[in-house]
Amino acid sequence: MKTATWLMTGALALGVGFQTARLQAAAALPEARRIDEILARHWEKEKLAPQPLAPDEVFLRRVYLDVIGRVPTLEEARAFLTSADPTKRAKLIDQLLASPGYASHTFNYLADVLRLLSDAKDSKTGQAYADWLKTALAENRPYDQMVRELLTTEGGAWDSGAIGFYMRDRGMPLDHLAATVQVFLGTRIECAQCHNHPFDKWTQMDYYKMAGFTYGMDTRAYGLTANKSVKKGQRKKMAGEDRELLQEVRQNMQEVMKPLRYTSIHSTERLPHLPDDYKYDDAKPKEEVAPATMFGHEVVPGPGESRLAAFSRWMTSPENPRFTTVIANRMWRRLMGVGLIEPVDEITDSTVPMVPELMTYLERLMVEKKYNLKSYLRVLLNSEVYQRMPSPKGLEPGETYAFTGPLLRRMTAEQLWDSLATLISGDVDARSILPDERNAAQLDALGRLSDAISEKTPEQLVASVKALQGTEEGAKQQRLDALSAEMKEAQKAGDKERARKLASELAGLRRGSRDIAFVAVLGEEGAEQYEEAMAEARQGAPKKGDGKKGAALNREEMRKMLAEGMTKQEIRAKLQEMRDTARVNGSAVRASELSSPAPRGHFLRTFGQSDRETIENGNTECSVPQALKLLNGPVAPVLMASNSHYQAALEAAPDRRSQEETVYLSLLSRRPTVEERQILDNVFEAHPKTALEDITHAVLNTAEFLFIR
Fold it and tell me: Where are the domains of the chain?
């Protein structure tokens, strides 16, 4: 039994043991001082007093979690808390913003906003999209540039993973437009897709005019279906025999081209048409709608500029009345716990920020920083308001806030996972986040296949097939066609036994041969290289921590779970969590490097990771399953395992006092108070053999560990 009595004392409740401190005389940024001056005037007007400045222990843990998404290591905590440098806070902020952890943590946030799915039907494109976003953040690409790339990139996922933005809503261009406006302009217009907006000024015509800019992005064409030359070749006057052969090639290539599905998008001149039941006087049903912006200046494409490029230029312009407001407010909300405008994505003409002067200044600051998110965050992090103690009370829905300090927040699922990974494996930021090499290899091979297809004219395809028909490959193809025809006849006649035998023979022959159309497109050598590359990419390198022992444990667990009556979905989630835990033990894998999102039932999903079905859908609400995960799950035992960085630190501590300090600095980024040491001494005396594990387990289950002060 864990030390329940000690837990009930509430000795580790929020606020206990902290002493007041003053902010060191850091070289404050002028922009940060401006934020504090604006808020000081607001507090004076509202007759409010700010929260006291946070002590080093509170600031240290908060800034690590806010900037790189994890608690500081034991070594990092000791180094900061023992430093007498008066500028150490400003220096730590710069250090964290330059850390690989910044990209990892910011990826988790933006992946939720963008509803990014790395493991959907289009998993290759989804993973490429995730890699693109990580790379953009690691390079500190300006936010407006990132948005322009998302809006205008076309081609294959092997060219740029940014095509995942459109592929996320493939086949649903109208829904995609609503999501685009909500994410980047903070405006909800989805109601206007079916009728004039009942609570805002947007009309159904406004909606379709906006959709006109992005409607032409084709997410379904791929391979030969995207080869305009081949499509035209079927319509023009080719010789009848050649035309039939070209059609046969297209049909035979369908199986070969399956891996190319959902991997490319192409811009077209297609425009939306009003629905059949359009009921307003400004147009007729089914009428084609030309693109036009819903507010701001008119979009006029420049010489040689596409309408999509012009649209992206309008969207990200500093003159756009909402683009800058939304991203400035989102970043403020990430650090302070609540936005100056709430909700962040339901802005209307009547919206008034909680502190209007500050919102105006932050908009100007974002433009001055040229949408460099790191530079913008650096200012916010150096402000006194960010470095104050949190407000002692939460906000009710619709309640305004004077920003006397940040709000108290619970860690996100990803912050909790990454913090546990840090405790288990040490510095999880020692290695930069890298693109998925296996996925990149597959995409490279698919890119070569796509290029080969796009370069072929109808005449070249027909000529290549004719040349192959007299070869061994051609003979095999004829035999395949004959067997396929026989099997269909047997099935039609109801001869199941003969159909089964023919199917088996057909499968065996296919394994030993290549489709003649495939060879016609890539050539013999190219076809062989493609198959080798795809096979190698599928096999991939074994993941660290996924050895035979882990596989055996999975099989044992599966038998146990089946006996307990768990569903297949629950079993899959549990096994994925076991694999991810093994990877954490072996290679310090952050949440950003796992499937995004994790499967339902996984630790991350239990603690509120977004399912990515709707925009910014993650939550930090507490639940009974979360409590059970921490109380009865494997977290504490894994921390106390022999290969754990945390356990190694405990073993290296020379005495009991040092061990107690190690527990507190590792988990809470502070040292225990005098009162807490007395309680810890009692635990050691009552349970000397299990005291450290009991204390660890208890601290992990406190509010202080789970919350960001």
Answer: 20-98+332-404, 102-222+289-321, 437-539, 562-708
